[in-house]
Amino acid sequence: MDTTDLLEIAERERAARTPRRLRCCTAAGCLSQNGQALKAALIEAVKTAGLTDSVEVVGVGCMGLCSQGPLVQVDPDGPLYEKVTPDQAPAIVAALNEPSAPADDVRVGDPTHPFFAKQVPVVLQNSGKINPERIESYIEVGGYQALCTAVREMQPLEVCELITASGLRGRGGAGYPTGLKWSTVAKTESDRKFVVCNADEGDPGAFMDRSVLESDPHRIIEGMAIAAYAVGASQGFVYVRGEYPLAISRLKTAISQARRLGVLGAGVFETRFDFRVDIRIGAGAFVCGEETALMRSIEGHRGTPRPRPPFPAAKGLWGCPTLINNVETLANIPAIVANGPEWFAGLGTGKSAGTKVFALAGKIKNTGLIEVPMGTTLRTIVEEMGGGVPGGGSVKAVQTGGPSGGCIPAEHLDTPVDYESLAQLGSIMGSGGMIVMDESDNMVDVARFFMEFCMDESCGKCVPCRAGTVQIHHLLTKLRSGKGTARDLDVLRELCEMVKQTSLCGLGQSAPNPVLSTLRYFHNEYDTLLNDPMTPATKPLQTSTETR
Amino acid sequence: MAVKTLTIDGKHVSARDDQTILQTAREAGIRIPTLCDLPGVGPLGACRLCLVEVTGVPKLLPACVTVVQEGMEVQTNTERLRRYRLMIVELLFAERNHVCSVCVANNHCELQDRAMEIGMTHSRFAYQFPKLDVDTTHGRFGIDHNRCILCSRCVRVCDEIEGAHTWDVSGRGANARVITDMNVPWGEAASCTSCGKCVQACPTGAIFRIGATVAELEKDRTQLSFIVNARENKQWLG
Amino acid sequence: MTPVAVPEVTVPKEPSSRAAPRADNRLKMLEATMKRHQYQADALIEVLHTAQELFGCLEDDMLTHVARSLKVPPSRVYGVATFYHFFTLKPHGEHTCVVCMGTACYVKGAAALVSAIEDLAGIKAGETTPDGKLSLITARCLGACGIAPAVVLDGEVLGYETPESLCNRVKGWLT
Predict the structure, then answer these.
(1) Is the Cβ of B3 closer than 8 Å to some Cβ of chain C?
(2) What are the helix and strand counts (H, E) for chain B?
(3) Where are the domains of chain A?
(4) Strand partners, B141
(5) Is residue A534 scored above 60 in pLDDT?
(6) Which of B163, B213, C48, C53 has the most CB atoms less than 10 A away?
(7) Which tens digit of pLDDT belongs to each residue from B53-89?
């Protein structure tokens, strides 16, 4: 197996292709909208029309615009049909014979809409285009070339340097420089090392990793293999949420296909590099997204974090040096190796290179997945691409970073999205969930919602997080029911600061963020709830606080 | 073996290079409050009482697991740390049902000691008053979950010193409880050797000797360090 | 690796009648999973996943069986099984209704879905109806935020649900 073989497979795949194809989204969003029946209806319609030799119906991954699903796209260069129902299948197939005349009773999407036009797909390059259940489909678009180049033509340290030069930072939330992490693991001496892909996407409102795993699983395997080669690991684990059955099954398929082709296993691409990947399925614990808890879980224990240092790069799984990267981080790797670090650094802004995938959800017209260069403003994402609040309402706040992040008020929508700018606003980049709130959303409720989440997900090991989140939640409930006093608000603020400063792991340290950020930007909503005649009304009421 | 020099609360001290800040401070006679720490078993870093400030490090560090470094400047008793410690103890008192006046460990309780040391007079937080069980099925020992602070000393002492691993923690968050075997009554836990080390390890009156009455339960931690010293260093210092 | 014979265990009670004839087979399948992991203690969570898939829930006998097979303390097995919310120690009802309570679903009214089903079935979230027909479960984000609010009915993901549409779907299960 080498580059030539890969090219041959790609060539064969291209030759076997029918002139026209109907790409049918089979990611979780569209599947839940009757996508499977639609795919069957399309296959049936093609058969009835006698077009089986010239038209193929292909199940592909996520096309991004989940709110308009199920989606069908005519390849090459055909229209994108939205909200397709199975009974519209014959009309779509009939329209194939009249080029550029789409089926008239089906809704046609606008590919020039900012939702599509402003995207720069790197991680999502193949999503919605290739068949995620066939390795050949990935190889056809150049897949595994980067791994082949890395293991056959580069030294491990060169690969680390290349990633460092690209400026890639961890996409899981904290934004630690990926190249630096790799070099640290590479330089730590040990007979055994591990690479872990963190696919425990726990932030409620984030579904980027699920989509990548469902749409382009080989990309993750390739990224992991390159990482393993660079740091000197021979065993990898993908730790994936149990809530994502489709992602797990596609990943399993992908791993066995890669093994059969000699891309994984002993002697990758006939070199001396061995790499094996196993899947570990999470069991419903948000805290396992924290790296030390994740490792405990892989080792078969309760997923409780431990103090760092030692960091996983020094002492990770079974005490061995371990590299842990998030799905999106690893998905960037093949593209960086293939196109060079300068290309990647050229995307995005100075300190935040590359692109970022965001999951748009909440009170927004176009919900779904987008990938934009770092530095794109929130306004562009929410208003232009997302189409703003449905029904013409106005955006009140954008929540980023899930339970660890914060609510950014509408007046800051012109902030460019990068690690530093979001941190300055009291939020974080997080894994990429972006939830839009409108005027009907009460921010104290939002804060309470996240605190309930953190309270339920606290592992219970350290006191500030275990007992502190309970008390913060209690105070928010008290305030929300109109029984709170100015004194309660003071205790709330003091307690939030303490939990943030003293908790053992990232979950506890960031749990107060949604409260602190709403206290910062929507203080009046707390003030109006106070049942205390001594309370000075510091600011005039900006928004209504009616309950939904 | 290299020696490191550092300052703790302005006092110059020296330490072996594998020592933690907590060990070093203790040797130098500087008191850092702890609850989950228990000499002889592995550190946990969970009660957060021993957090200290180190110059140049933005985060607070747990003294029980942080190894000393050359030139470190450690502060163990700043206004901020005292404020946090007070809140941590208040949180513990509000979490379960700690009624010192009727407790077997009254006057011999580490939680009570910490509260007095830190100057806690009452808890500002809402008392949760959870409904919890008392299990006396063992016959010799009992566990009162009302007084448990989830420090997991019993779990560690049973696993690391006795080797039975009868205790573990079940559930999570506020619902976490210490359990014996398959969450069976202690008296039915087949793996329990009735060695009583968990009784000695427990910082409060949660694990107690049946028959002890109010304020009667004095615990002997030296028994544990005696065993560990005997096992590891072959020194029997009774 | 030491070969481990299938130990004598009482087969846990059936979660539902349909799985009854395959009881023996299921223990064999569980054994195969443990063997594939060479009875290593670190496979505990994987083994519990398999056991729950096969038997519907993790009853005490099953946990004891797993503890003995993997040679880990029973308290550790119980600790792990209760730490992860995916594992359930009691059998679910014949039908399950999972309402996603992720942020996107929350702002789109998932709480109303939960209370609608609570009222309809007379149970609280996390409970099963006394006749064992329906379990109502809340989930932490299914990652289907694009179609919020999302629910999963007997494994099938559905989007854009309203209290009315959801009640109409679930009603039939309760009679």
Answers:
(1) no
(2) 6, 10
(3) 19-111, 135-345, 355-438, 443-547
(4) B209
(5) no
(6) C48
(7) 999 999 999 999 999 999 999 999 999 999 999 999 9
The chain B residue lying nearest A470, using CA atoms, is: B174
What CATH fold (topology level) applies to the domain A19-111?
Glutaredoxin (3.40.30)
| CATH classification code of A443-547 | 1.20.1440.230
**CATH topology (fold) of A355-438:** Ubiquitin-like (UB roll) (3.10.20)
C-alpha distances (whole Å) from A9 to each of A6, A13, A142, A262, A275 are: 5, 6, 10, 13, 22
List CB contacts (< 8 A) between B181 and chain C.
Answer: 73-75, 78
Q: Do B174 and A466 touch (CB under 8 A)?
A: yes
Cα B25 to Cα B62: distance, rounded to the nearest angstrom: 13
pLDDT digits (tens, 9 = 90+) for A371-420: 999 999 999 999 999 999 998 889 999 999 888 899 999 999 999 999 99
3-state secondary structure of A434: strand
User: Would you call B57 an interface residue with chain C, using a CB distance cutoff of 8 Å?
Assistant: no
Which of A452, A455, A461 to substitute to test the interface with B, most B CBs within 10 Å? A461
Looking from the CA of A194 toward its CB, the CA atoms found within 13 Å total: 23
CATH of region A135-345: 3.40.50.11540
Q: How far apart are CA C38 and CA A273, in angstroms?
A: 25
pLDDT at B149: 98
> Taking the mean position of all CA atoms in its chain, how far away is CA A373?
15
Please provide residue A29's backbone torsions phi and psi, each rounded to the nearest 5 degrees. Answer: -60, -50
Nearest CA to A338 among A160, A179, A146, A158? Answer: A146
Determine the Cα–Cα distance for residues C63 and C78; give it in Å rounded to an integer. Answer: 7
Whether C136 and C121 have beta carbons less than 8 Å apart is answered as: yes
Mutate to test the interface with A, among C140, C151, C160 (most CBs of A within 10 A): C140
Option in A307, A460, A494 nearest B172 (CB)? A460
Q: Tokens standing for B195?
A: 């060695």
Domains of chain C (ranges plus CATH)? 26-83 (1.10.10), 95-174 (3.40.30.10)
Note the pLDDT tens digit of each residue in C108-118: 899 999 999 99
- Determine the distance in angstroms separating the CA of C28 from the nearest CA of chain B, rounded to an integer: 23
Tokens of residue A116, six digits = 């599509």
Average pLDDT over residues B177-183: 97
The verdict on a CB contact (< 8 Å) between B87 and A466 is: no
Q: What is the pTM of this model?
A: 0.91
* CATH number corresponding to B3-77: 3.10.20.740
Per-residue tokens: A479: 């305030």
Domain edges within chain B: 3-77, 106-232
Domain B106-232, CATH: 3.30.70.20
